[in-house]
Specification:
Largest sheet: none
Oligomer: single chain
Number of helices: 11
Order of helices and strands: HHHHHHHHHHH
Strand content: under 5%
Radius of gyration: 33 Å
């Protein structure tokens, strides 16, 4: 039988081991907790630094934009009015009659997109000279022809356009969205493309490598051009009003000044809203279309390019 001294020694050793174990556990848990907290705090600090630099860059960009706008308003606007706008206005008042000028504007709106030339200046002139009524008709007739001609020409160069699009697979994936789905889906996507920042002169040619039918392409393009036409007409009329005030004998009343200021704000907000909505809608369509694909990025891009059909679409198929 063990003596009482041996038992007390064993009890003391057991207590000592328990204390050591508890101390070890406490230290280990404490170290793990500190490590976890450090791991959590490090991404938070990095996110804070990135957010700080993002705001610095945004502030610098705003300051640069303001400086550029002030320089443009101080020297750019007078130069445009005196060297470009006024000569054009005098030229159109003396060189051509209004019927001939209307034909010239329709021809420019129809032919510029064929050669990938922006037709915005022609739309401004239509708004400045003919206003909302006849100016809108000129813009819609000219741009409609300017959307049909590249489509028909592009049908003869589909293979080259297809090879060219392979250099920009992401843009090809976006364009392919327009050629999928029903008639209404194609109509909606084409209208969104017309309102979005995507270059419409390139879209006119690139759309031929998809399964897009002619009539949804045509009507979707017309629907998408309506808001842009009114914005160009309004901005053209506003530019002409400012030119008459600065270089003519026209004086605006207080009501006209308030009206033009408010309408300018509404036009800017409307343009931004249309653009943002169209861009977000196209991105949402792209995400929905690619949500079921589980592959690597390169395989996914290759799959998107393979889906671009090589057969010619039926031009007059509803």
């Amino acid at each position: 039988m063990m003596s009482s001294s041996e038992e007390s020694g064993k009890n003391a050793n057991s207590v000592h081991h328990v204390r050591e174990d508890s101390e070890y556990v406490r230290l280990v848990i404490s170290n793990e907790t500190n490590t976890a907290e450090a791991d959590v705090s490090q991404p938070q600090s990095e996110a804070g630094v990135k957010s700080f630099w993002w705001w610095i860059k945004a502030l610098a960009l705003c300051l640069v934009t303001i400086v550029v706008l002030l320089i443009f308003l101080k020297w750019g606007v007078p130069f445009l009015f005196e060297k470009i706008l006024l000569p054009i206005m005098r030229w159109e008042a003396t060189a051509f009659g209004r019927p001939v000028l209307a034909i010239v504007l329709v021809a420019s709106l129809a032919l510029f997109p064929v050669f990938l030339i922006p037709s915005g200046p022609s739309m401004w002139l239509a708004g400045m000279i003919f206003g909302y009524g006849f100016g809108f008709v000129i813009i819609m007739v000219g741009t409609t022809i300017g959307m049909i001609l590249p489509y028909l020409i592009g049908l003869y160069f589909r293979d080259r356009i297809h090879q060219w699009l392979k250099k920009w697979p992401r843009n090809a994936a976006m364009i392919r969205l327009a050629g999928e789905g029903s008639w209404l889906h194609q109509f909606r996507v084409v209208a969104l493309f017309r309102v979005s920042p995507f270059p419409y002169t390139i879209f006119n040619y690139a759309i031929v490598v998809t399964s897009m039918r002619f009539w949804p392409y045509l009507w979707g393009s017309i629907a998408g051009m309506v808001p842009e036409a009114f914005i160009y007409i309004y901005s053209g009329r506003l530019i002409r009003t400012f030119a008459d005030v600065k270089y003519g004998n026209y004086h605006m009343t207080t009501v006209e000044i308030v009206y033009n200021t408010l309408s300018l704000i509404v036009a800017i907000v409307t343009t931004v809203a249309f653009t943002v909505y169209a861009k977000n809608a196209l991105n949402e369509l792209k995400r929905a279309e690619t949500s079921g694909v589980e592959a690597s990025a390169s395989d996914h891009i290759g799959l998107q390019m393979e889906k671009l059909p090589l057969e010619k679409p039926h031009i007059f198929t509803l």
